[in-house]
Design goal:
This protein has a two-stranded antiparallel sheet with strand order 1-2. It is flat. A hairpin with a 4-residue loop joins strand 1 (about 135) and strand 2 (about 140). The chain is mainly α. It is built from twelve helices and two strands; from the N terminus they run αααααββααααααα. Helices cover about 70% and strands about 0% of the residues.
């Protein structure tokens, strides 16, 4: 007997297997080659440059450089505290319905954001030319004695930072829904209590990331205080280079210290942002340390297959 004729409709036949052809990314390979070539040229150029790299480790932990690093950290923290505190006040004034306070806040931000930090530092440093004597009634002294380099740097950096922090805080406050404020007022909370208990805690998620960036930027901007004779890293490096004649090498030492400080505080900023993100993200992504532990566990769980005898 012959097999019956297959009358299966063509629509029920299995589809042909799809042959996936990978896309060629010639541009990626070309750009990678160009980037590697440029990096190689830079490395070769610096390796052949007239730089005594062996001097850098000798001065990396020089007492003068270490004290300059502490001064940089000290003035950066103080200026940032002043900037954040005054920035919150200016932001509240800017959002106030009082036209006088909002106008004063806007004028302050306009002045300090519109002029260079170096000019502000020099103005504070030479303020004795305008006001030779500081007379507060209960305290009187010559302005040259009052405006020390540390106070000059604190005022110049801190007051300038307050203008930027006020805009950051204002953006964070405005990111909170107005219904939160209305509900707080309906419960009988005052304006100040609503700001402290309801608005600012929710606004921190928006305020923290740019504030961390501002502090890292403050660590580098503090180098401008060299112009007002503050003994920070650049001032110390310059003083040492004037006697050792290792000018470029000392600037490399300063760069290493700045990279170290900014790296440490970048890690701190990451974990602070992660903490304040808990209210908006249900499942937080793993930290770099958690990812490293997971990869190590996966690597340790691998077993070599037994050889059959």
């Amino acid at each position: 007997m012959t097999d019956p004729v297959d009358k299966t409709p063509a629509a029920t036949l299995p589809p042909e297997q799809i042959k996936a052809i990978p896309v060629r990314h010639y541009g990626r390979w070309l750009s990678a080659v160009v980037v590697i070539a440029l990096v190689a040229l830079i490395v070769v150029a610096f390796s052949n440059a007239n730089i005594n790299y062996s001097v850098i480790p000798d001065y990396l932990f020089d007492p003068g450089i270490v004290s300059g690093a502490w001064t940089t950290l000290y003035i950066s923290v103080l200026a940032m505290v002043l900037g954040v505190t005054l920035g919150v006040v200016l932001a509240v004034m800017r959002l106030s319905s009082n036209p006088v306070t909002s106008t004063v806040s806007w004028f302050y931000i306009w002045i300090f954001r519109g002029t260079p930090v170096l000019v502000q530092l020099l103005l504070w440093y030479n303020i004795s030319l305008v006001f030779p004597v500081l007379n507060l009634g209960f305290y009187k002294n010559e302005m040259n004695q009052v405006m020390t380099p540390i106070l000059t740097a604190l005022l110049g950096l801190g007051l300038n930072e307050a203008a930027y922090m006020s805009e950051i805080v204002r953006a964070g406050i405005q990111s909170v829904d107005e219904g939160q404020t209305e509900a707080s007022h309906a419960l009988g909370m005052t304006q100040g209590k609503t700001l402290r208990r309801v608005v600012l805690p929710q606004a921190m998620r928006v305020i923290i990331p740019p504030t961390g960036n501002e502090f890292i930027n403050m660590l580098k901007t503090s180098s401008l205080a060299y112009a007002v004779q503050l003994p920070e890293i650049i001032k110390k490096a310059t003083d040492i280079s004037s006697t050792s004649l290792a000018v470029v090498e000392m600037y490399f030492v300063a760069c290493i210290w700045y990279l170290f400080l900014t790296t440490i505080f970048s890690i701190v900023q990451y974990y602070i942002e992660r903490r304040y993100a808990r209210g908006s993200t249900r499942n937080l992504p793993p930290t770099p340390l958690q990812r490293l532990k997971k990869n190590l566990r996966m690597f340790g769980s691998f077993r070599r297959p037994e050889v059959a005898r």
